Structures are given as C-alpha cells and as structure tokens.
What we know:
347 residues; alpha/beta; Rossmann fold; 5-stranded mixed sheet; 3-stranded parallel sheet; 12 helices; 12 strands; 14% strand; Bact_iron-sidero_bind
Amino acid sequence: xxxxxxxxxxxxxxxxxxxxxxxxxxxxxxxxxxxxxxxxxxxxxxxxxxxxxxxxxxxxxxxxxxxxxxxxxxxxxxxxxxxxxxxxxxxxxxxxxxxxxxxxxxxxxxxxxxxxxxxxxxxxxxxxxxxxxxxxxxxxxxxxxxxxxxxxxxxxxxxxxxxxxxxxxxxxxxxxxxxxxxxxxxxxxxxxxxxxxxxxxxxxxxxxxxxxxxxxxxxxxxxxxxxxxxxxxxxxxxxxxxxxxxxxxxxxxxxxxxxxxxxxxxxxxxxxxxxxxxxxxxxxxxxxxxxxxxxxxxxxxxxxxxxxxxxxxxxxxxxxxxxxxxxxxxxxxxxxxxxxxxxxxxx
Length: 347
C-alpha cells in the first residue's frame, strides 16, 4: 500500500514539474515576442523620423528648413561641386558648363545642364522638381528668380558674405568655407566627413602660416588670354584674401583695386619693378578656355622678358594655383593650394 502511494506521489510531482516548465517556456517566448515587437516598432519609428528629418541652415538671407538627404538636388555653387561629388550626392540639374572636367558631374548626361551664369536655362530647375536648390557665388543674383520658380523647394544661398563677424576678406573666406562645409554635412548626413575636410583645411592654413618667414614680398597675378594681370591684396580674385590669412607682405598695392575675375590692368613692367621675392599665379585660361592655342600660365610667365630678372622668376620662387581653381573654388582646392604654398615656402 505504501509503495502504491509512493508511485502516485512521484507521478503527481512529475506532472507539476512538466507543467511548470511549459509555463516558463511560454512566458519566455511571450517576452521575446514582446521585445521583438518593441524593437520593430522602435526601428520603424526611427526609420520614419529619418525620412522626415529636417535641419535648419543659416544662409545669406536667414534661416531655411532643409530636408536631410533630399532626393532631388540642384547645385549651382561651384564651391560645392567637388564636395558633393566626393560624398556621392546625385544631382538632378547643375551648370555643367562650369564644372571642371575632373569632377564626374561634368560628363554625367543624366544631370540637366543649366548652362552657365551668363545665360542660364532656369526653367530646367523648375522641371527638375527639386527638394533643394543650392545657390551661391556666380548664381547668387538669380536667388529670387529661383525661389519664384520652385516655391515648394528649400533654396539656400551659400555666399560668403553671410558672416557678420568677419572683419577682413580673409576671415570671410575662412569662415565661409567652414560654414558651407558644416551646412552640407548636416544636409547630407556627412557630419564626420565635413569635420575631416575642415580639419584638413585648418591644418593646411597653419602649415602655410608657419612656412612664411614674414618678410618676403609677395606678388600675385592672374594670367588670362595671354596677359598677366595684378591680383590685388585683400580684394583680388583667389589671392586677395590670403594676404589677410597669412599676413603676407605685398610687393605692390594700388588704389581702387578690384575683385575682377581677370585681375587689374597693371603693366608687366610695373609688376617687375617691384622685384618680388615670390610670384603667386592663377591660370584662368586653364579652367575656362577650350581653345587649344590658349597659352599655359607658366609659358606666359617664362616668356615675359620684363619678369626674368626679378628674384621670384630668376630663383624659381613661383607657386601656381591648381589648374581648375577659377571654376573649382572648393574647400578641397584651397586646402591643396595652401599645402602647395607650405611645401614651396618651406624649401
């Protein structure tokens, strides 16, 4: 009798144990499913918020709300082309006539070609139905026209003169490049890449500052159409603001200097009379001329008799800006220019 009761008790205990295990398994499964559901919901919410995310960008006209990673982008500012291309941003339309050949956008037939800033086909911007239009520099004067054409798009004007804190053209240029790069990084979710571009830019400035001895005289010129024209300190195209950044000693200063894209009309003889220690040259034709007979800036300098006895030419103390500088005034271009200055001045 006792044996029978023993087996009966053992059987009941086993049943309860199995039942407890089943309950535990169901409970764990339910928790896992709930956790998976929660994770799925969080993922969906995150994905949805990413798609609808916007960022506030301060441009030359105020604050603009811009979608993050916009689908249809029109870029008109030649300071942005290399950065956008390096980041893999697809463009719906752009002034391909102004884009240097070594940037893939120039030959991309899928991008509507707006032409150049002198006779642009702005209707192509409207036809592209953009989410974002990036205006700046050569196209700055068309800002209001573009806003009227695409009232539903975010239109930002990235001209440098947005900085009220800048006291000199050099500060304006330096701050402007940083602001543009930060803004593009926020818009296209490339913040780390933007930070790296700025870090390289700042390092190149420091290196070029350290390489200059503080006393050598600098003459900056623009070669255009075979002519050598003066790029004035502070105001001259490309070179002017750099006198502020690097505190260069100018070999020549003139009254009523301009920012003309071909430089100021100062005779080669007047330039030679200053006998500069260094000659800094931008070749405009290299960036814009399609004529085979256009003379490279180096040939023009080498064949200018008046310059041959200057210290800069006779001792080979000449720095040429990157060939596409005139149409590719990106942060990468200026970083390369500053690196070249640092390397050459330090020799």
